[in-house]
Amino acid sequence: MKTERLNFFWKVVVAVSTVIGVFLSINMLFYIHLFGINPIQNAYLIYLLGCFMPISFLIFPAKKTQTSVKWYDVVFFAVSVIITVYLGLQGKRIIEEGWDWNAPTIPTYFSIVLWALLLEALRRTAGLVLSLICLVISLYPLVASNVPISLLQGQSYDFLTLARNHILSSNSVFGIAYTTIGNLLLGFLVFGVVITRTGGGDFFFNLALSLFGRTRGGSAKVAVVGSAFFGMLSGSAVSNAVTIGAMTIPAMKKSGYKPYYAAAIEATASTGGTITPPIMGSAAFIMASFLATPYYHIALAAAVPAFLYYLGLFIQIDGYAAKNHLKGLSKSEVPSFWKTLKDGWYYIFAILIMIAFLGFLNSEGQAPYYASVALLIIAMIKKETRMSKKQLFDMLLEIGKVLADIVVIIAGVGFIVGALSATGVSFSLSRELVAAAGDSTFLILIGGALTSFILGMGMTVSAVYVFLAVIMAPALIAVGVDPIAAHLYVVYWATVSYITPPVALAAFATASIAGASPMKTGFQAVQLGSVKFIVPFFMIYNPAILIGRGEPLETVLSIVLSIIGIFMIASSLEGYLLGAGALKIVERLLLFAGGLLMFFMNLYLLIIGLVVLGLIYLFKIKVSLNVNKEKGQEV
Questions:
Q1: What are the residues facing 581 on neighbouring strands?
Q2: Does residue 532 contact residue 308 with C-beta atoms inside 8 Å?
Q3: N or C: fewer beta carbons within 10 Å in the chain?
Q4: First-to-last CA distance in the chain?
Q5: CB atoms within 10 A of CB 299
């Protein structure tokens, strides 16, 4: 945990700052106005930055080798607190007097300093690559009118005006992505920490173990389902892979899975958390703000593609287990389902509370706080889960770390959005992309996929999404693509780099746990997670598979057919067809092609796909009968 470098004093500072930040969020979202505190929106957002950006200098070291807080960390902390508090107090003047264009001397110079501090905080939390990208693009408006490429030409600004526009306007650092944190995302991140700290991760893992532990290849299926549960709450691919992988990978190796294959299973399953509701990282919440759509609409739309992703993985590992005659865990190693449910029912109850507030009471920002409070109360009442003062304190520190991380990243990425919108390039670029592609949806999709993948090597999913939501998504929408499908397409491709060499962060992390070759693990993860390469295209060409994006009957039919399609594709990839046995290369190719046809809502193509599946089954049955007949004659 990053807070290990903090002594007790600095831990208290982090905890207090976290409490203040969460209090500000609750006070704003529930309209409490406690102690007469009722800041206007821009002041509230500045204060949130003042709570979580300064502690990032304490939690995240300037160099990985540093094991204690240095004097310059304290200076950065103090200066960022002073600036954000000052600007927060001036929130009303910032708006009324138009400080984003013409501010007094002090706030202007404060804007420059905060600009630099935020980039340094971004370097510490998200790495040098993202920080440099944000730095370069944030400076781009200085030379925008002189860029020789017409596609990138735009309005230029002098340095002081640019600094004010970045920090004091509602278009850059405190733009739509950051506003989403204050109005929606903060509570969900708090809930994610609360549910894991109270034992939710263990509960969902044991629940998966009780359901699938005794099936063939049971340890791998437990890894998939457990990682799906854990990942949808944490939204972090790498931390999910490391946390759950420490338990699942040794179990998979013990049951007969090869080290690289076990590591690839865990990496692929963990990566799915970033595309699985309810949390999905932070991208889904920002998407809701970009599209001015209730978050639960996004979550509903994302549910079926996420299910297809895990279904494809599940079918492949089952096929591997069948081919290699791998058995499930023994009865003594598998907990009772009903006992597990009885001991941890309140975790599911807390999620149901959140869903109720999201879907039926339309209280998106408040929902996770209600769920967190309910979960904490029940956990403290039960003797088995009651937390000590130290555990509660550690939970506060974890919340502070998680919120500092996401606040800094999203605020930093705001530089990109601010620079592109201030120069006007964000509007012209998407228009030019459509023109360059000749209104071809497919060419724009390929360009978007490659861009997302490349950016995903050095940027977080949220950062990639925000960048492409401004440039790529509007281009897709302009050629008639469903808006939610267009934005989900970008999110999916932004996560691909977690399992794809040469970067493959999740795959490399699990490879180290398994003692396997990182590159071999990465390429195996690509095969297991290949559904993630396929489904985004079908979301575009058949948006009816997204719940709420088509007529009910059309959606149901599309989902059923897509399940059949994924079953065929996953079976072909692993080379094993349930009920038919191992497949030869020609059969695999035919099955793969037939599976692709199932995603197109064209009667003739669907019939061809189903006929291919039926013929392969008939052929395999005939071969099996002939083999059995020959064996009978020999006897």
A1: 577
A2: no
A3: C
A4: 65
A5: 22
